[in-house]
Amino acid sequence: TTTANHASASASSPTLSSSATPIAPRLRFAPSPTGHLHLGGLRTALFNHLFARRYNGSWILRIEDTDQSRLVPGATDALQEVLEWCGLDWDEGPGRTGGSCGPWIQSERLEIHRQYAEKLIATGKAYRDFRTEGFADSAGSDAAGPSRQRGRGPRIVAADDYVPPDEDEARALIRDGRSFVVRFKMPSAPLTHSDLVYGPLNFPADVGASDPILLKSDGWPTYHLANVVDDHLMGVTHVLRGEEWLPSVPKHLALYEALGLAPPVFAHLPLLVNKDGSKLSKRSGDVHVAAYRAAGWEPEALVNWVALLGYNHHGQGPARLEGNRNEDGEVLSMQDLIASFDPKRISHSRATPDAGKLAFLNRRHL
Fold first, then answer.
1. Which residues are catalytic?
2. What is a GO molecular function of this protein (predicted)?
3. CA 187 to chain centroid
4. Looking at domain 285-365, which of 1.10.1060.10, 1.10.1160.10, 2.40.400.10, 3.40.50.720 is its CATH number?
5. Model pTM?
Protein backbone atom coordinates (compact mmCIF):
# COMPACT_ATOMS: atom_id res chain seq x y z
CA THR A 1 0.00 0.00 0.00
CA THR A 2 1.29 3.43 -0.90
CA THR A 3 1.30 5.97 1.90
CA ALA A 4 2.33 9.57 2.32
CA ASN A 5 3.07 11.37 5.56
CA HIS A 6 3.18 15.06 6.31
CA ALA A 7 6.81 16.10 6.43
CA SER A 8 6.17 18.82 8.98
CA ALA A 9 3.02 19.73 10.86
CA SER A 10 4.35 23.24 11.34
CA ALA A 11 5.23 23.81 7.70
CA SER A 12 3.86 27.03 6.28
CA SER A 13 1.09 26.90 3.72
CA PRO A 14 2.40 26.36 0.20
CA THR A 15 2.12 29.16 -2.32
CA LEU A 16 0.40 28.79 -5.66
CA SER A 17 3.56 27.45 -7.26
CA SER A 18 7.18 26.79 -6.44
CA SER A 19 8.04 30.26 -7.73
CA ALA A 20 5.69 33.03 -8.78
CA THR A 21 2.07 32.42 -9.64
CA PRO A 22 1.78 32.01 -13.41
CA ILE A 23 0.15 35.00 -15.08
CA ALA A 24 -2.33 32.63 -16.69
CA PRO A 25 -2.62 29.32 -14.81
CA ARG A 26 -4.08 26.49 -16.83
CA LEU A 27 -6.11 23.74 -15.21
CA ARG A 28 -8.16 20.76 -16.29
CA PHE A 29 -11.09 18.68 -15.15
CA ALA A 30 -10.59 15.18 -16.50
CA PRO A 31 -13.47 12.84 -15.61
CA SER A 32 -14.06 9.32 -16.86
CA PRO A 33 -17.44 8.77 -18.58
CA THR A 34 -18.34 5.84 -16.36
CA GLY A 35 -21.61 7.17 -14.94
CA HIS A 36 -23.27 10.28 -13.57
CA LEU A 37 -21.24 13.19 -12.21
CA HIS A 38 -21.33 12.98 -8.42
CA LEU A 39 -20.80 15.61 -5.73
CA GLY A 40 -17.08 14.93 -5.39
CA GLY A 41 -16.59 15.31 -9.12
CA LEU A 42 -18.63 18.50 -9.16
CA ARG A 43 -16.50 19.97 -6.38
CA THR A 44 -13.32 19.11 -8.29
CA ALA A 45 -14.67 20.74 -11.44
CA LEU A 46 -15.87 23.76 -9.45
CA PHE A 47 -12.54 24.33 -7.71
CA ASN A 48 -10.73 24.11 -11.06
CA HIS A 49 -13.19 26.67 -12.43
CA LEU A 50 -12.80 29.01 -9.44
CA PHE A 51 -8.99 28.76 -9.51
CA ALA A 52 -8.84 29.53 -13.24
CA ARG A 53 -11.25 32.45 -13.05
CA ARG A 54 -9.74 33.91 -9.85
CA TYR A 55 -6.24 34.07 -11.34
CA ASN A 56 -7.24 35.00 -14.90
CA GLY A 57 -6.40 31.59 -16.29
CA SER A 58 -8.25 28.91 -18.22
CA TRP A 59 -9.42 25.36 -17.73
CA ILE A 60 -9.89 22.38 -20.00
CA LEU A 61 -12.51 19.65 -20.00
CA ARG A 62 -10.78 16.39 -20.98
CA ILE A 63 -12.58 13.06 -21.20
CA GLU A 64 -10.46 10.18 -19.91
CA ASP A 65 -12.03 7.14 -21.54
CA THR A 66 -9.07 4.78 -21.80
CA ASP A 67 -10.78 2.16 -19.61
CA GLN A 68 -13.23 1.12 -22.30
CA SER A 69 -14.73 -1.71 -20.24
CA ARG A 70 -16.36 0.77 -17.83
CA LEU A 71 -17.77 3.30 -20.29
CA VAL A 72 -21.44 4.25 -19.97
CA PRO A 73 -23.15 5.29 -23.24
CA GLY A 74 -24.27 8.91 -23.12
CA ALA A 75 -22.21 9.74 -20.03
CA THR A 76 -20.02 12.32 -21.79
CA ASP A 77 -23.01 14.29 -23.09
CA ALA A 78 -24.73 14.10 -19.71
CA LEU A 79 -21.57 15.31 -18.00
CA GLN A 80 -21.30 18.37 -20.23
CA GLU A 81 -24.97 19.17 -19.74
CA VAL A 82 -24.79 19.09 -15.95
CA LEU A 83 -21.59 21.18 -15.85
CA GLU A 84 -23.28 23.83 -17.97
CA TRP A 85 -26.37 23.69 -15.75
CA CYS A 86 -24.09 24.45 -12.80
CA GLY A 87 -22.55 27.42 -14.61
CA LEU A 88 -19.13 25.84 -15.12
CA ASP A 89 -17.99 27.10 -18.51
CA TRP A 90 -14.79 25.34 -19.55
CA ASP A 91 -12.60 27.18 -22.05
CA GLU A 92 -11.42 24.28 -24.20
CA GLY A 93 -12.72 20.78 -24.68
CA PRO A 94 -15.72 18.93 -26.09
CA GLY A 95 -18.45 21.29 -27.21
CA ARG A 96 -16.07 24.23 -27.54
CA THR A 97 -14.48 25.73 -30.63
CA GLY A 98 -10.90 26.93 -30.65
CA GLY A 99 -7.88 25.73 -28.76
CA SER A 100 -4.86 24.04 -30.29
CA CYS A 101 -4.31 21.19 -27.83
CA GLY A 102 -7.05 18.77 -28.85
CA PRO A 103 -8.42 16.27 -29.36
CA TRP A 104 -9.94 16.40 -25.89
CA ILE A 105 -11.02 12.76 -25.66
CA GLN A 106 -8.18 10.43 -24.70
CA SER A 107 -9.29 7.57 -26.92
CA GLU A 108 -8.58 9.90 -29.86
CA ARG A 109 -5.00 10.42 -28.65
CA LEU A 110 -3.74 6.82 -28.60
CA GLU A 111 -0.98 7.32 -31.16
CA ILE A 112 0.37 10.24 -29.14
CA HIS A 113 0.54 8.10 -26.01
CA ARG A 114 2.27 5.27 -27.89
CA GLN A 115 4.90 7.66 -29.22
CA TYR A 116 5.77 8.72 -25.69
CA ALA A 117 5.94 5.09 -24.56
CA GLU A 118 8.35 4.37 -27.42
CA LYS A 119 10.44 7.36 -26.39
CA LEU A 120 10.75 5.95 -22.88
CA ILE A 121 11.75 2.54 -24.28
CA ALA A 122 14.35 4.16 -26.53
CA THR A 123 15.91 6.00 -23.60
CA GLY A 124 15.96 2.91 -21.38
CA LYS A 125 13.30 4.26 -19.00
CA ALA A 126 10.68 1.64 -19.98
CA TYR A 127 10.64 -1.89 -21.40
CA ARG A 128 8.39 -4.39 -23.12
CA ASP A 129 7.13 -7.24 -20.96
CA PHE A 130 6.36 -10.34 -23.05
CA ARG A 131 5.15 -12.62 -20.29
CA THR A 132 1.86 -14.42 -20.86
CA GLU A 133 -0.85 -11.92 -21.74
CA GLY A 134 -3.07 -12.53 -18.73
CA PHE A 135 -0.15 -12.29 -16.32
CA ALA A 136 1.41 -9.24 -17.92
CA ASP A 137 -1.85 -7.32 -18.11
CA SER A 138 -2.97 -8.08 -14.56
CA ALA A 139 0.29 -8.04 -12.62
CA GLY A 140 1.00 -4.46 -11.83
CA SER A 141 -1.87 -3.00 -13.78
CA ASP A 142 -3.55 -0.21 -11.87
CA ALA A 143 -5.46 1.06 -14.87
CA ALA A 144 -8.70 0.65 -12.97
CA GLY A 145 -7.71 3.47 -10.67
CA PRO A 146 -6.67 4.18 -7.10
CA SER A 147 -8.31 1.11 -5.54
CA ARG A 148 -5.61 -1.06 -7.05
CA GLN A 149 -2.92 1.29 -5.83
CA ARG A 150 -4.23 0.99 -2.29
CA GLY A 151 -3.50 -2.71 -2.10
CA ARG A 152 -6.82 -4.21 -3.15
CA GLY A 153 -5.70 -5.37 -6.59
CA PRO A 154 -3.16 -7.83 -7.95
CA ARG A 155 0.43 -7.55 -6.83
CA ILE A 156 2.75 -5.27 -8.76
CA VAL A 157 5.80 -6.87 -10.35
CA ALA A 158 9.23 -5.60 -9.41
CA ALA A 159 11.82 -4.95 -12.08
CA ASP A 160 14.11 -7.77 -10.95
CA ASP A 161 11.37 -10.36 -11.53
CA TYR A 162 11.83 -10.09 -15.28
CA VAL A 163 14.69 -9.52 -17.69
CA PRO A 164 13.29 -7.86 -20.82
CA PRO A 165 14.65 -8.87 -24.23
CA ASP A 166 16.95 -6.56 -26.12
CA GLU A 167 15.59 -4.60 -29.08
CA ASP A 168 16.40 -7.24 -31.70
CA GLU A 169 14.80 -10.00 -29.62
CA ALA A 170 11.78 -7.81 -28.96
CA ARG A 171 11.26 -7.13 -32.66
CA ALA A 172 11.48 -10.85 -33.40
CA LEU A 173 8.88 -11.62 -30.73
CA ILE A 174 6.58 -8.94 -32.14
CA ARG A 175 6.95 -10.41 -35.65
CA ASP A 176 5.96 -13.77 -34.19
CA GLY A 177 2.75 -12.23 -32.89
CA ARG A 178 3.70 -12.17 -29.22
CA SER A 179 1.77 -9.62 -27.21
CA PHE A 180 3.40 -7.43 -24.60
CA VAL A 181 2.81 -4.59 -22.19
CA VAL A 182 5.11 -1.63 -21.70
CA ARG A 183 6.34 -1.06 -18.15
CA PHE A 184 7.99 1.99 -16.66
CA LYS A 185 11.25 1.43 -14.78
CA MET A 186 10.08 2.96 -11.54
CA PRO A 187 12.93 4.47 -9.50
CA SER A 188 13.29 3.17 -5.95
CA ALA A 189 13.91 6.16 -3.73
CA PRO A 190 12.09 8.13 -1.05
CA LEU A 191 10.37 11.28 -2.21
CA THR A 192 9.39 14.53 -0.54
CA HIS A 193 6.85 16.56 -2.45
CA SER A 194 4.94 19.73 -1.61
CA ASP A 195 1.23 19.58 -2.30
CA LEU A 196 -0.74 22.81 -2.61
CA VAL A 197 -3.33 21.54 -0.12
CA TYR A 198 -1.45 19.10 2.14
CA GLY A 199 1.92 20.84 2.16
CA PRO A 200 5.16 18.79 2.30
CA LEU A 201 4.55 15.05 2.03
CA ASN A 202 6.99 12.17 2.50
CA PHE A 203 6.61 9.09 0.29
CA PRO A 204 8.69 6.13 1.53
CA ALA A 205 11.16 4.37 -0.74
CA ASP A 206 8.95 1.29 -1.13
CA VAL A 207 6.63 3.20 -3.45
CA GLY A 208 9.33 2.80 -6.07
CA ALA A 209 9.49 -1.01 -5.80
CA SER A 210 7.12 -1.62 -8.69
CA ASP A 211 7.17 -1.20 -12.42
CA PRO A 212 3.74 0.15 -13.41
CA ILE A 213 2.24 -0.61 -16.80
CA LEU A 214 2.16 2.29 -19.26
CA LEU A 215 0.69 0.50 -22.29
CA LYS A 216 -1.54 -2.55 -22.04
CA SER A 217 -1.28 -5.47 -24.46
CA ASP A 218 -4.05 -3.98 -26.61
CA GLY A 219 -1.95 -0.84 -27.09
CA TRP A 220 -4.14 1.34 -24.89
CA PRO A 221 -2.43 3.52 -22.27
CA THR A 222 -3.04 3.28 -18.56
CA TYR A 223 -4.07 6.32 -16.56
CA HIS A 224 -0.49 7.18 -15.58
CA LEU A 225 0.95 7.59 -19.07
CA ALA A 226 -2.09 9.25 -20.66
CA ASN A 227 -2.49 11.64 -17.74
CA VAL A 228 1.12 12.82 -17.68
CA VAL A 229 1.45 13.12 -21.46
CA ASP A 230 -1.83 14.97 -21.95
CA ASP A 231 -1.31 17.36 -19.04
CA HIS A 232 2.06 18.29 -20.55
CA LEU A 233 0.85 18.68 -24.12
CA MET A 234 -2.19 20.67 -23.03
CA GLY A 235 -0.05 23.10 -21.05
CA VAL A 236 -1.57 22.31 -17.66
CA THR A 237 0.17 24.22 -14.86
CA HIS A 238 -1.94 23.12 -11.87
CA VAL A 239 -3.61 19.76 -11.24
CA LEU A 240 -6.51 19.80 -8.76
CA ARG A 241 -7.86 16.29 -8.18
CA GLY A 242 -9.16 14.02 -5.42
CA GLU A 243 -6.95 12.76 -2.61
CA GLU A 244 -7.41 9.19 -3.87
CA TRP A 245 -4.76 10.05 -6.48
CA LEU A 246 -2.09 10.94 -3.91
CA PRO A 247 -0.50 7.45 -4.24
CA SER A 248 0.07 8.20 -7.93
CA VAL A 249 2.23 11.26 -7.26
CA PRO A 250 5.58 9.38 -7.13
CA LYS A 251 4.80 7.59 -10.41
CA HIS A 252 3.76 10.79 -12.13
CA LEU A 253 6.74 12.81 -10.91
CA ALA A 254 9.07 10.00 -12.00
CA LEU A 255 7.45 9.95 -15.44
CA TYR A 256 7.84 13.70 -15.83
CA GLU A 257 11.51 13.39 -14.92
CA ALA A 258 12.07 10.44 -17.27
CA LEU A 259 10.54 12.44 -20.12
CA GLY A 260 12.53 15.55 -19.26
CA LEU A 261 9.39 17.56 -18.51
CA ALA A 262 8.55 20.02 -15.75
CA PRO A 263 5.65 18.73 -13.61
CA PRO A 264 2.60 20.84 -12.78
CA VAL A 265 1.74 21.99 -9.28
CA PHE A 266 -0.41 19.34 -7.57
CA ALA A 267 -3.32 20.02 -5.22
CA HIS A 268 -5.24 17.04 -3.85
CA LEU A 269 -8.74 17.60 -2.51
CA PRO A 270 -9.87 15.63 0.56
CA LEU A 271 -12.68 13.19 -0.07
CA LEU A 272 -16.34 13.80 0.62
CA VAL A 273 -17.62 11.18 3.06
CA ASN A 274 -20.80 9.96 4.69
CA LYS A 275 -21.46 10.57 8.39
CA ASP A 276 -19.93 7.18 9.19
CA GLY A 277 -16.73 8.15 7.38
CA SER A 278 -17.35 5.96 4.34
CA LYS A 279 -16.65 7.47 0.92
CA LEU A 280 -19.53 8.92 -1.07
CA SER A 281 -19.98 6.66 -4.06
CA LYS A 282 -20.91 7.23 -7.70
CA ARG A 283 -23.17 4.22 -7.31
CA SER A 284 -25.28 6.02 -4.69
CA GLY A 285 -28.00 7.73 -6.66
CA ASP A 286 -28.53 10.39 -4.02
CA VAL A 287 -25.08 11.92 -4.68
CA HIS A 288 -25.55 12.29 -8.43
CA VAL A 289 -25.76 15.93 -9.48
CA ALA A 290 -28.45 14.92 -11.96
CA ALA A 291 -30.56 13.66 -9.06
CA TYR A 292 -30.37 17.05 -7.32
CA ARG A 293 -31.35 18.72 -10.57
CA ALA A 294 -34.30 16.38 -11.06
CA ALA A 295 -35.43 17.08 -7.49
CA GLY A 296 -35.70 20.79 -8.26
CA TRP A 297 -32.74 22.25 -6.37
CA GLU A 298 -31.47 25.59 -7.63
CA PRO A 299 -28.10 25.23 -9.43
CA GLU A 300 -26.76 28.35 -7.66
CA ALA A 301 -27.60 26.79 -4.29
CA LEU A 302 -26.03 23.46 -5.19
CA VAL A 303 -22.82 25.15 -6.37
CA ASN A 304 -22.75 27.32 -3.24
CA TRP A 305 -23.22 24.22 -1.05
CA VAL A 306 -20.53 22.19 -2.79
CA ALA A 307 -18.10 25.12 -2.60
CA LEU A 308 -18.41 25.11 1.20
CA LEU A 309 -17.52 21.42 1.51
CA GLY A 310 -14.00 21.28 2.89
CA TYR A 311 -13.36 24.97 2.27
CA ASN A 312 -13.24 27.82 4.78
CA HIS A 313 -15.37 30.64 3.41
CA HIS A 314 -16.12 32.17 6.83
CA GLY A 315 -15.41 35.85 6.73
CA GLN A 316 -14.87 35.74 2.98
CA GLY A 317 -18.23 37.13 1.90
CA PRO A 318 -17.60 40.31 -0.14
CA ALA A 319 -18.88 43.44 1.56
CA ARG A 320 -20.85 44.41 -1.52
CA LEU A 321 -23.41 41.68 -0.80
CA GLU A 322 -26.60 42.91 0.79
CA GLY A 323 -26.68 42.12 4.48
CA ASN A 324 -29.92 40.17 4.23
CA ARG A 325 -28.28 37.72 1.83
CA ASN A 326 -25.01 37.09 3.59
CA GLU A 327 -25.26 37.28 7.38
CA ASP A 328 -22.87 34.38 7.95
CA GLY A 329 -20.62 34.83 4.92
CA GLU A 330 -21.79 31.60 3.32
CA VAL A 331 -24.53 32.64 0.89
CA LEU A 332 -22.37 33.23 -2.16
CA SER A 333 -22.91 33.64 -5.88
CA MET A 334 -20.51 32.26 -8.46
CA GLN A 335 -18.85 35.66 -8.76
CA ASP A 336 -18.48 35.84 -4.98
CA LEU A 337 -16.90 32.39 -4.94
CA ILE A 338 -14.45 33.40 -7.67
CA ALA A 339 -13.51 36.66 -5.96
CA SER A 340 -12.78 34.95 -2.64
CA PHE A 341 -11.16 31.72 -3.85
CA ASP A 342 -7.79 30.87 -2.33
CA PRO A 343 -6.44 27.30 -2.52
CA LYS A 344 -4.77 27.78 0.87
CA ARG A 345 -8.27 27.78 2.39
CA ILE A 346 -8.99 24.22 1.24
CA SER A 347 -9.19 22.04 4.33
CA HIS A 348 -6.99 18.99 4.92
CA SER A 349 -9.96 17.23 6.50
CA ARG A 350 -12.63 15.22 4.76
CA ALA A 351 -16.05 16.83 4.59
CA THR A 352 -19.56 15.45 5.08
CA PRO A 353 -22.37 17.06 3.07
CA ASP A 354 -25.13 18.53 5.25
CA ALA A 355 -28.52 18.33 3.55
CA GLY A 356 -29.90 20.91 5.97
CA LYS A 357 -27.41 23.50 4.78
CA LEU A 358 -28.36 22.82 1.17
CA ALA A 359 -32.01 23.45 2.04
CA PHE A 360 -31.06 26.72 3.77
CA LEU A 361 -28.97 27.88 0.81
CA ASN A 362 -31.68 26.90 -1.64
CA ARG A 363 -34.20 29.14 0.15
CA ARG A 364 -31.74 32.03 0.03
CA HIS A 365 -30.98 31.60 -3.67
CA LEU A 366 -34.63 31.46 -4.75
1. 282
2. glutamate-tRNA ligase activity
3. 22
4. 1.10.1160.10
5. 0.85
